[in-house]
Write a structure and sequence with these properties.
This protein is mainly alpha-helical. The chain folds into two domains: about 5-55; about 60-90, no CATH class. It is built from two helices and two strands. The protein has helices at about 5-20, 35-55; strands at about 60-65, 70-75. Helix 1 runs antiparallel to helix 2 (about 35-55). The two termini are about 30 Å apart. About 10% of the residues are buried.
Length: about 90
Amino acid sequence: MNIRKLLVYVFYVACIIAALFALNFIDSLVGPRLNNISFFGAVLFSLIAIGIKRSLPTKKTHVCCPDCKELVLKEASVCKYCGCKLIPSV
């Protein structure tokens, strides 16, 4: 599994936990002052997860290098991993 995908899942889980705090489902562990902070934490975690997910390479933005099989941008003329010359496909 890609490390970025793992980070997305971690932030989604953190978002759910923070939302549960904000909705008082886990009120027995902490006092009511944390509820507003938890709500903003849930919003922050979800925004971070969405940002990470949008930055993941897709077939629309990246191609596979024929030599080293690493993902590089479609606009690239040279692979940044192995130096292979690529034909840009825009």
